[in-house]
Every structure is written in C-alpha cells, then in structure tokens.
C-alpha cells in the first residue's frame, strides 16, 4: 500500500432517490478514497435467471473513477435472489433446525452444485463486465463467509468421504471416537448415521472441523475464478468476522481464519465494538491482532461502525480515536458499514456515516478530520510493522471441544471467555501480542506463549510446546489444557497429560468451586476479586513451586497456580478460573520472568500504547486515552515529534490527553 485507505460501503441500489454525484462530492470532502460495492446485490444484477444488468455497478465505477475514488468490487454470492430459490429450493441449507426458509442472507448450502453453478455464473458475468475498469484496486470474495451450519444429506455424504480418507477403516474411526458407547460404533461406511443427532463429542467436533473446511474450499474456489480476470496489482481479500455477542468478541467458531485466509493476498475483517462509555479499544485491538497474525502482515478493516445503533453513536472524538486505533494495530484501511443509513428492511437502524436525512452531521464532520489526517500522515503510518515478543495460541478445535464439554452444567462460559480474560488483561498491561495457532512454526520467535484451554491437542503439538519451554521459552498454560488428544479422547495419563513434564504438576480431580478463594491473597487484590469460580483443578506439584493454594476446608492442601523451571525455560500453570485482577497479576509475574516488562507496562489502561515501525524504519508510538477524563502523564520515550500537532516532546515532559483523544509520536 502506498497510502492509508479510508472508505465506506456504498450501495447506490439502496438509495431512495438518485444522488450519486452528491454522495461523491461529500465523500471527497471527507477524504474518502475508496468504496466497496456489489457484494450485497445479486438480485439487482441478475433479476431473473440468466438476465444480467450491471447498470448500477457501471454507473458507480465510472463516477468514482472520474472523482479519483478507488473501488473494491465484491462478488455478490452471500445473498441469493428469489428466483433461484423458487426454481431450486434445494439451494437452501438444511441445518439441525430443518429445511431452510427464504428471507435472510447467508441461508444457502455452499456445497450445493446448483448454487455453485449460479454463483460461478454471476461471478464470471460480473468480472467480464468490470475487469478492465481503471477504478478497481481489488476484489472482495463473498462476505463474512461461514458454513451456515449446512448439514443436509449431501453434506453428510461428503462427510463420510472425508472420514474414509482420514481414518481408512471403520475400526480406526470407532477406536478414535469411542463409538462403542451406547452402540454408536459403525461397521460399514454405508451405515454411517447423520451427525446431526449425535451425542458423541468426538464425532460432532470432527463434523464441525469438516464444516470449517467447506468454508476454506468455497473461498479458495472463488479466488481461483477471480484470479482469471484480475489485473496485476489488484488484490483479492475477504471480510472475515468474529464470534458475535452483539459486537465482535472472539475466535469465530465456524471459520478457521488461519486456513481460510491462505488463498487471499491480504486479510480483511470487520470489527464492531461497544462505544460511548463502554469504548475500551479492546475489540479493535483483538480483531486487528487476529487479522494481522493470519499472514504476519498488514490487513484491511473492510467494515467498522460509524453511527450504527443508538448505543454505539460515538461521543465527540471517539470516531477519530477508533480509526487511529485500527491503524495502530496494523490496519492499512478503515472503512465504515456503511455510507448512508437505509430507509427500510432489516438493518434500517444500523446507521451509516450519514443518517436517514443524508445530510452532514457531527459524525460525518468528524470523519472529515480523519480523512484529512490519513492523507497527511499516510507516509508515516501506512504499512506499520510489529515484532511482538508475546503470543497467544488459539485453537478452533479446542473451542469446539469446550463447547461440547462445558466447564460445568450451570455455566455459559466458553472458550472465548477465557481467551478474552487473558487477552484483555494483556491489553490493559500495554502488552501487544500476536495470535498463533497449532500449525504456527518458529515458536521460538516468542519469549512468552500463553496457552488458554488447549483442551484438544495432538501429542505432536504438546511435544512442540514442551520443546519450546525446554529450550528457553516461557509459557503460561491454563486449566483444561492437554486433556484430550486431537480426537477429543481423554488421555489415560495423569492430567495435564504430556505437558506435565514442563509444568511439574499433576491432578486427578476437578470440581465446581463454591465460596473458594486463593489462600493468603497472593496477588494482593480486593477480597471480592480473590475468589475462584466455575472450574477448579486440584493440583499436586511434582517439581513445581506453588504460587497459590485454595482457601477451603476440604481442598486447602491442593495448589491452584504453580510455576516450574524446565530445561532453560519456565512454565506457569493456572488450575482454576480467576478474576481479571488475579489474571493480571499472574500475567505480570510471567512477563517479568520472561524479561518482557518494559516502559509501557508501567502505564496502565485507560492509557494504551501501541507501537510499530514505518516504511522509513522509524518507530511510531501511539498513546490513546480511552476514558472521559483528562489524563496527564510523563512522556516516557526519547525526544520525538508528535505528528498531529507537529510539536516536539522531550522524555519526562508532561503531556495532556483530553477525553477520548490520542497522540502519535515518531521517534
């Protein structure tokens, strides 16, 4: 990238009246230099089977090019038109809830030959129409693609073929999954039941893994089609999303971002987050770290919020804070969904940069300052690179495994809750990190690897983690790690299985704690924050030292948190779910031991510091204030220029951060 991209999704087809020239002028006034089009409007481009009309696409492309605004064209395959479902109802996904019904988007079976026929046809017709247009800088494949829980007969048949290839024989399958339980074992491939009703977690989790490969295959298939038409210098991307909790929260259960992103030139994501009093920047940072880590390179934020919902409409200054927060994590593009608020249908009140009156407003006016600063500071901020010493290992398989075997029957906590418990406290300690996965090579590139709930793991992966520690790495393992193999079969050894070697601890019993605290409050938190909850392992150290025991009349002899020297490295093991305050203390302890404790760690949230190296080889430091209070601090770095104000600051000089504001320093 030669410049930061600042953009919006634009749907001329949704406008209540024609105003393309007006919109373009307002975009130019706001510094918008890219728009995303076409991914949502298949029915406009093919109103009847085999009847194609790209008038709206061509009109927008021509007008944007004339105005000097670049365009990303999306393949319109994630929302099928009515005629297709009427003629071919089999294109709708059959899920655990039964046959699909038309209405919403993302309701199709992405493996349906009929759907794939029509999808390929619309992609090729669109590409033939737009391929030589000079406005286009890239293409987006589909949108927020997932498998949509497609699990009908055709998918079950493909799953059996997948199992045959992986296990070769039904005996091997039965043994790996323990299917003899309740007479579930299969002795002929043609007897394989639908997985929809299974009670076997291994079988069900393998199906989830298979469904994720369907997403990989579908996206790679589209990429190969688009590659036939795209010109040199045009990128191909996808708009990945995250587990949704009313906003972007954690690892996406239905997509493996690391495998699905492989065919793309650059990873794209959408990131939505709480705002107003609840704006912390954590979701912006987490989503960015995942996106950047998929390819260890810069990424695109293809969607984020402008006004959106009433509880997200940003306070003055927050839109700027949010935009530069994305850049600080390594984004080369920030784009809003969407330019204008629409006037009917499902997302009427998911508001765009413009409200329903389509006139300038305070949020739009603030966007104008972002566009101007992006243009001015692009040479300093585009292509920021990071070299982090800390990583968190995430596992889609463990996420699925924990969903099958919850912490306890009364708890709704899942894998992502534990991941975010760790990530959020690192963030508040101003520790930047990469997100790695079980196939990541060169673990030794990191001084500290944190491993949350690695419930599902092969012997090979656990051996690699043992070797990492033995050769000098520092690791923090949490409860439920090492418990089962890659087929969710519980290991018959003492827990935590193979990593007992580096952790120096073992256990046989685990319980749901009630009124249990850590004895002697080892991390010095408020008494109300010293309690453990939901899950608790009764640890017996073998070679480890005990950092904390349980304060309980029956369980007081057992360790709760331990640390162990092994070879040249060190492993911490957390045997229970603790408060965020205790987790912060554990992580601080591990960071100091791994020699990662630096100037930034002495500064805490709501002041957040992000770092990068720009194309000129200069260090860039962002200092953000995620609070409604004025924050004053001593400037902690060497003498440098603050890029927004163009003032110079010396180390130790007092700087003032207004509410929801930030400063950018070039060292």
Automatic annotation (TrEMBL):
Catalytic activity: Hydrolysis of terminal non-reducing beta-D-galactose residues in beta-D-galactosides
InterPro entries tied to this protein: Beta_galactosidase_Trimer, Class_I_gatase-like, GH, Glyco_hydro_42, Glyco_hydro_42_N
Keyword line: Glycosidase, Hydrolase, Metal-binding, Zinc
GO molecular function, one term: beta-galactosidase activity
Any single Gene Ontology cellular-component annotation: beta-galactosidase complex
Protein name, as recorded: Beta-galactosidase
Residue ranges annotated for the Glycoside hydrolase family 42 N-terminal domain, each copy included: 10-376
UniProt EC number: 3.2.1.23
Domain Beta-galactosidase trimerisation: residue ranges: 389-596
Superkingdom, taxonomy of origin: Bacteria
Residues noted as binding substrate in the record, renumbered to the chain: 105, 143
GO annotation, biological process: carbohydrate metabolic process
Signal peptide: none
Catalytic site: 144, 303
Lineage: Bacteria, Bacillati, Bacillota, Bacilli, Bacillales
Family that this chain belongs to: Belongs to the glycosyl hydrolase 42 family.
Keyword check for Mitochondrion: no
């Amino acid at each position: 990238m030669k410049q930061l991209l600042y953009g919006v999704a634009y749907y001329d087809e949704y406008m209540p009246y024609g105003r393309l020239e007006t919109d373009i002028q307002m975009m130019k006034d706001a510094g918008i230099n890219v728009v995303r089009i076409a991914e949502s409007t298949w029915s406009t481009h093919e109103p009847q089977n085999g009847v194609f009309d790209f008038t709206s696409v061509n009109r927008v492309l021509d007008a944007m090019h004339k105005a000097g605004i670049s365009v990303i064209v999306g393949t319109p395959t994630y929302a099928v038109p009515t005629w297709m479902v009427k003629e071919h109802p089999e294109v709708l996904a059959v899920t655990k809830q039964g046959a699909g019904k038309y209405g919403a988007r993302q309701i199709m079976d992405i493996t349906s030959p009929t759907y794939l026929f029509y999808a390929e046809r619309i992609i090729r017709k669109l590409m033939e129409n737009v391929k030589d247009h000079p406005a286009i800088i890239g293409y987006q494949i589909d949108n927020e693609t997932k498998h949509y829980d497609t699990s009908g007969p055709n998918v079950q048949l493909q799953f059996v073929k997948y199992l045959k290839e992986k296990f070769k024989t039904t005996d091997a399958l039965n043994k790996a999954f323990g299917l003899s339980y309740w007479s579930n074992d299969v002795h002929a491939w043609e007897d394989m039941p639908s997985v929809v009703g299974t009670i076997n977690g291994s079988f069900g989790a393998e199906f989830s893994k298979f469904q994720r490969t369907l997403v990989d295959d579908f996206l790679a298939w589209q990429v190969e089609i688009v590659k036939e038409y795209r010109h040199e210098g045009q990128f191909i991307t996808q708009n990945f999303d995250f587990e949704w909790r009313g906003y972007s929260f954690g690892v996406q259960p239905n997509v493996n971002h690391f495998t699905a992103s492989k065919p793309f030139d650059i990873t794209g994501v959408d990131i939505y987050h709480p705002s107003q009093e609840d704006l912390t920047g954590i979701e912006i940072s987490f989503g960015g770290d995942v996106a950047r880590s998929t390819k260890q390179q810069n990424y695109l934020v293809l969607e984020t919020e402008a006004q959106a919902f009433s509880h997200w409409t940003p306070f003055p200054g927050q839109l700027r804070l949010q935009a530069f927060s994305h850049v600080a994590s390594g984004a080369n593009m920030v784009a809003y969904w969407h330019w204008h608020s629409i006037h009917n249908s499902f997302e009427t009140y998911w508001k765009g940069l413009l409200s329903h009156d389509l006139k300038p407003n305070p949020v739009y006016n603030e966007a104008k300052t972002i566009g101007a600063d992006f243009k001015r500071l692009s040479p300093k901020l585009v292509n920021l690179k990071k070299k982090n010493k800390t990583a968190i290992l995430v596992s889609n398989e463990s996420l699925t495994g924990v969903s099958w075997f919850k912490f306890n029957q009364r708890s709704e906590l899942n894998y992502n809750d534990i991941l975010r418990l760790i990530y959020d406290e690192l963030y508040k300690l101003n520790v930047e990190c990469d997100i790695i996965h079980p196939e990541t090579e060169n673990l030794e590139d990191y001084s500290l690897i944190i491993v949350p709930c690695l419930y599902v793991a092969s012997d090979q992966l656990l051996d690699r983690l043992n070797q990492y520690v033995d050769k000098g790495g520092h690791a923090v393992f949490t409860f439920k790690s090492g418990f089962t193999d890659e087929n969710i079969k519980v290991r018959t050894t003492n827990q935590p299985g193979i990593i007992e070697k580096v952790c120096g601890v073992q256990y046989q019993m685990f319980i749901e704690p009630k009124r249990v605290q850590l004895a002697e409050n080892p991390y010095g938190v408020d008494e109300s924050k010293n309690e453990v909850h939901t899950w608790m392992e009764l640890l017996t150290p073998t070679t480890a030292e005990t950092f904390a025991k349980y304060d309980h009349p029956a369980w007081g002899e057992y360790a709760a948190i331990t640390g162990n020297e092994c070879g040249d490295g060190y492993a911490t093991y957390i045997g229970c779910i603790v408060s965020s305050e205790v987790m912060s203390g554990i992580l601080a302890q591990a960071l100091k031991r791994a020699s990662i404790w630096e100037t930034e760690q002495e500064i805490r949230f709501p002041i957040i510091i992000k770092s990068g190296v720009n194309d000129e080889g200069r260090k860039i430091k962002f200092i953000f204030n995620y609070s409604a209070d004025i924050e004053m601090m001593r400037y902690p770095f060497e003498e440098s220029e603050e890029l927004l104000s163009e003032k110079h600051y010396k180390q130790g000089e007092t700087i003032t951060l207004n509410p929801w504001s930030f400063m950018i320093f070039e060292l």
